[in-house]
Amino acid sequence: MSKKLALIAFVVSLGGFLFGFDAGIISGVMSYASPEFQLTELQEGWVVSSPSFAAMIAMLFSGRLSDIFGRKKILLIVAFLYALSALLSAVANSYEVLYIARMIGGLAFGAALVLAPMYIAEISTSKNRGKLVAIQQLNIVLGFFAAFLSNYFFNKYNTPESSFLTDENVWRYMLGVELIPALLYFFFLFFVPKSPRWLYVKNKPEEAKRVLIQIHGKITADEEIATIEKNSSHELTKSKVSFKELLKPGLKFLFLVGLVIGILQQITGINAVYFYATSIFKQTGIGTDAAFSSGILLSSVSVIFTIISMYLIDKTGRRSLLLVGTFGIAFSLILCAYGFQKATYQLTTEKINNLNFENSSKLLTIENTVFTNDLDFKNAAKSALGLAVYQKNDGAILEAATNINATLVLIGILGFIACFAFSLGPVMWVLLSEIYPIKYRGLAIGIIAFINSLISSLVQLIFPWELSNFGNALTFFIFGFIALIGFFVMLKIVPETKGKSLEEIEQEFVKA
Q1: Exposed, middle or buried: residue 512 (CB in 10 Å: 0-12, 13-18, 19+)?
Q2: Cβ neighbours of residue 16 closer than 8 Å, sequence gap 6 or more
Q3: Which residues lie across from 403 on neighbouring strands?
Q4: Which of 8, 28, 373, 439 is deepest in the core (most CB within 10 A)?
Q5: Which residues cross the membrane (predicted)?
Q6: Is 343 helix (H, G, I), strand (E, B) or coil?
Q7: How far apart are CA 425 and CA 260, in angstroms?
Q8: Would you say 422 and 325 are in contact if contact means Cβ atoms under 8 Å apart?
Q9: In angstroms, rounded to a whole number, what is the distance separating the alpha carbons of residues 315 and 317?
Q10: CA distances from 95 to 46, 101, 117, 368 (A)
Q11: Is residue 304's pLDDT more than 50?
């Protein structure tokens, strides 16, 4: 694999880094923005999830637009939207401006998540396609790592003695720093070539050959050209594609496979855990500072296991990684549920007196009461303090009251993140970029990504409500049970595609 090929794949998938950064940064932002704008739980959920709703629109149309105008042109628009979103988010003066700015970013990452794996698959060879497409997932988790690290330092230096960072402005800097990588992404995209397989479909074989030689060198390029030309004439004679064609016997099974994996990737709650990581760790009673630093640990695990996935995906195959990872996800989530189920909550007089915020004495109304679940305790604390005061100080309150095996919950969450990072995270995008013929690829991936984003946004939207109404234990158990069902479904239907060219995959799985 040439260094040029790896570099191109890395640049194209920087949209994934920005998605990960945005998703990770918001978990720290809401600790400050929510009290400032006095948001309800549903409003907080909407600020977090609104980019995913916008992403659905982008995912539905970006693939088809890239079929018409080219992958590169649409990616340049994506980078511009990322930069605009970061700028507007940082200067938002109301709840409405904040979620609209984030929806602009949602349009960007919706398109980026569809186009990057598609483009990378089209410039890769069968020997390295898996690991190259997985670079997008690596960039996503690197974005999470950068976001949690950024949040940690912003939170650390936001002290009462600081005149630069305050509770009122620190979240603006958290969001605004995303402008830097967004502008770099926009700049580097100008040096990326057009997709050679897209050029063939557009009847530009000479330009496609030049790009392949530029990327791979003449020997490998000649092999790729021979493989593509066997199939390109057939692609060019096809009529305009429509959704109905994806439901024809030749494609229906592959569309079902993509749909199942696309739904399962998000319905197990991965983005709820990422987006609300700081809040979740607060639930364990480890405190606000420890919650922010635990986010760094979480993102570090993501990076490590994504790299492991990149090493294994072209060796062990896509199917085995998916199955092992999904079973591990189910086990880890159920372990979290068990840990939360065993927790108790109690505020003694001494602990209440040690709480250092205004009106903390109102908690004396529930002193020495033992609560056997987080739901009853949080409702009692909110009733005593009021929602706004509780939201601003929930980390300190839960740290004082919680008696839980925090290590067990942390192991469960990190296990979930690790299993996701080497299975559903990268493998879904690899499979989607492989199993559909190029003529249908933009449409099929766009529809599946649309549904994937819909599930993601719904999970994010209702997650705060679930924690408030179902409690931590039942919420995590539901996610774990869904993952277990998904394991058995994938055991039945998921094919193996490793070591095959895109054209060979089409001949094997797509029936006339």
Answers
A1: exposed
A2: 112, 113, 116, 136, 137, 138, 139, 140, 143
A3: 344
A4: 28
A5: 7-33, 45-62, 74-92, 98-120, 132-153, 173-192, 253-276, 296-313, 320-340, 408-431, 443-463, 469-491
A6: coil
A7: 14
A8: yes
A9: 6
A10: 10, 10, 34, 38
A11: yes
**Selection from 288, 296, 21 nearest residue 155 by Cα:** 288
Structure-block tokens of residue 150: 């950024």
- Are 102 and 139 in contact, with CB atoms under 8 Å apart? no
Residues of the chain with CATH 1.20.1250.20: 3-341+407-509
Residue 141 has a CB neighbour count (10 Å cut-off) of: 29
Q: Which two tokens stand for residue 84?
A: 């605009």
CA atoms within 13 Å, Cβ hemisphere of 240: 2
The model's confidence at residue 512, banded by pLDDT at 50, 70 and 90, is very low
For residue 325, how many C-alpha atoms fall within 13 Å in the half-sphere facing its CB? Answer: 32
Tokens of 418: 């690790």
Q: Mapped to the 3 state alphabet, what secondary structure does 118-133 carry?
A: HHHHHHCCCCCHHHHH
What predicted TM-score, i.e. pTM, was given to this entire model? 0.72
Q: Judge contact between 399 and 229, C-beta under 8 A.
A: no
pLDDT digits (tens, 9 = 90+) for 161-216: 777 888 788 889 999 999 999 999 999 999 999 988 888 888 888 888 888 888 88
DSSP-assigned letter for residue 213? H
Residue 292 pLDDT > 70, yes or no?
no
- Kindly list the distances between the CA atom of residue 243 and the CA atoms of 60, 64, 282, 420, 454, in Å, as whole numbers in the listed order: 11, 11, 45, 30, 18
**Burial of 368 per CB tally in 10 Å (0-12, 13-18, 19+):** exposed
Q: Which fold has domain 3-341+407-509?
A: Growth Hormone; Chain: A; (1.20.1250)
| 243 residue type, one letter | F
Which 3 state secondary structure label does DSSP give 313? coil
CA dist., res. 69 & res. 433, Å (int): 19
How buried is 320 (Cβ within 10 angstroms: 0-12 exposed, 13-18 middle, 19+ buried)? middle
The DSSP output letter for 402 is E
Check residues 45 and 291 and name the one with the higher pLDDT.
45
301 alpha-carbon distance from chain centroid: 15
